[in-house]
Amino acid sequence: MAPFVFAALAVLGAGTTEIAGRHLRLGFSGDSGGIVSIQAGGHEFVEAAAERPLLWRLTLRDRAGREAAVDNAAAPRPSITVRRGSLVLRWEAIPLPEGAGTLAVRVQCELGAKDETARLRLWVRNGSGRFGLWTIQFPVVSPVGRKGGIDVAVPRGNWGEPLREAAEPVSGTYPSHNLPMQFLLVQKGQDGLCLAAHDPGARPKEFSLAPGGEFRILNWADDMGVPGNGWDAPYAAAIGAYEGGWMAGCKHYRAWVLRNAPWTRRGPLHLRRDVAESIRRTSAWIIGAGSRQEAVPVVKRFAEAIGAPVGTHWYNWHQIPFDTDYPSYFPPKPGFADGVRELREAGVLVMPYINARLWDVANREFPAARPHACKDERGAPLIEEYGSGAKLAVMCPATPFWQQRVGDIVRRLVGEEGVGAVYLDQIASAPPRHCFDPGHGHPLGSGRWWVDGYRKMLEPIKRWCVTGGRRAALTTENNAEPYMDTVDAFLIWTPRDAHEIPMVTAVYSGRALYFASNRALAGGDEAFCLLQARDFVWGTQLGWEGGEIVQPAHAAKLEFQGRLARVRARSLDWLAYGELLAVLDPGPEIPAIAGRWNTWRGDRPVTLPAVHAALWRAPDGRLAIVAANADTRSHRFRVTLDSARLGEGPLPRAVAVEVPARDGVVVAVSPARR
User: What is the pLDDT of residues 281-319, one digit of tens each?
Assistant: First the structure.
């Protein structure tokens, strides 16, 4: 990818103003201010822009719910001010309907001559006494590529989703399981764009991309619908250029989060003293359920079979039914504390389930909790229903009442029941909800207060868990990034797909822990072993099946999982503390294995190579190839390591790796750095 050699800023013909950096050039329309061109390397990513292209789109509402929509294409022509490395567009006196006032909008794009990322910010000044800002879509870029003419990678689900020759729209709400990181990748050949929000505040937002159509990031305003509210550029939208595949795009985003995100401020895992050793060392998990008599024998059988540090996720330890009567978890079922002690003496990390988000409206304490629940615009609590049928109110994480209640439950479980970890359901899974209760002290509707509220809840709990002689861990569901400094591990339990790519560990390996490799138990030995092999080399702690895994019918599965868990336990420098650098192709000589996995579309056939491999770097610089073989025969393969492409070296040009049948290996390929 060659850098552009023309001036960093130029006003060209046809009313287009261009700003250029290293490998990246953006063009803005003089008529509407919209983006007419994005060039990265040798490719144009905006094809046939509209005559008056969009850049931003706003919706406003009044107290009666009437809506007004404004965008730059319908607004008066902007003024454009340019200086080296910066471009500013201004729209003044944009009229609102029925003489309800005017808006002023300003956009700034920064792109220095040596930069590979353009940073765009938007300000909105609302002069209306009637309308309040509701949503902000910025940037809006159209058309991005052509339908079927670009590759897209979206960091959603457990790992990440690649879309070759993408034709269908994709979207996701951040931060949640369907968009745990705030970026997506668009690729033409080896030239790519990382379309990101550089938002340390982790505000709720929605990414949308229609190949051949529109890309946009939608935000909800602070104090949604309050007359006169505005938008004060709380973060930069980023358009970054990179060369290479999806891994290079992930590393582009990783570079930003490691420098700027508050959730990475505690540093790499191997240096963190606030993460319990027990959760770091855990190599496999089993779901425990029910009473001591039901759970403990099964978990102990699993631990003996694995032969490496294990954890149990203990459900239904409480007397109340699941998803009912929350949060009245106490008293636990008789013998729970004794069961915890028995498992702890067997070397098992015990982690009970609680929900950190919901309160059953039928619970006898709900009248006292109701003022602290999230409210809609009419003041009614937000209600969700799951399999139990109970009506569960979403609690507002910004309220000290709910923060304290969750903390009290955790302290009681750790301090009285003796558990070594507590699972806090839904925090990194469910998307933020709006809350319009003016008594909660946060901006009405949306805002960074949702993540800030959970961080304010979790920080003192986490601090308590690792002080005073305690070494307990906190975990949560799925893998939304902004909680990783306040929880210790993320449960990636949702359906698997054969086409996934490990975008999550490409960005956060060595910074966060992930656990689960379920979803193939019923698909046969080959399918199960194939999933374990793939997820093992991508960096997760294995397992999270129910007690049936210890039944004789699954002996081969359990044996393979145990082998991989023992390899992981010996290789934490790479698989827990290291960085995933590349997914390796073992080559065409490796046979394929077929089976059935549980996917988002139900149980589906999958066919993948029997051997999976990846290149990892330990904190001291040692590189190793991690490989796993799901086949009942051993296999040998050779991989070529490109020192220049990997930014490592010198490396051996080719490395031969032999993986025994149904086993895993870690092969060091370079020494520690001096």
Answer: 999 999 999 999 999 999 999 999 999 999 999 999 999
Residue 387's Cβ-side half-sphere holds a number of Cα atoms within 13 Å equal to 3
Count of alpha carbons within 13 Å of 196, Cβ hemisphere only?
29
Predicted pLDDT at 674? 55
Residue-wise pLDDT tens digits, 91-136: 999 999 999 999 999 999 999 999 999 999 999 999 999 999 999 9
d(CA 306, CA 93): 69
Quick check: 478 pLDDT over 70? yes
User: Residue 574 pLDDT more than 90?
Assistant: yes
Contact 139/71 with Cβ under 8 angstroms?
no
Q: Is 65 left (phi over 0), alpha (psi -120 to 50) or beta?
A: left
The DSSP letter of residue 256 is: H
**Residue 11 clears pLDDT 70, i.e. is over it:** no
For residues 511 and 262, the answer to whether their CB atoms sit within 8 Å is: no
Q: Are 162 and 148 within 8 A, CB to CB?
A: no
Cα–Cα distance, 315 to 299 (Å, whole number): 12
Of the candidates 181, 105, 93, 98, the one whose C-alpha atom is nearest the C-alpha of residue 136 is 105
Q: Contact at 8 Å (CB) between 536 and 614?
A: no
163 by Cβ neighbours in 10 Å (0-12 / 13-18 / 19+) ranks as: buried
Q: What is the pLDDT of residue 6?
A: 36
Spatial neighbors of 304 by CB under 8 A, at least 6 apart, are none
Nearest in space to 536 (alpha carbons), one of 308, 348, 248: 308
Average pLDDT for 151-175: 97
Give the domains, in start order, of the chain with CATH numbers. 9-245 (2.70.98.10)
**Which of 607, 612, 611, 609 shows the shortest CA–CA distance to 594?**
607
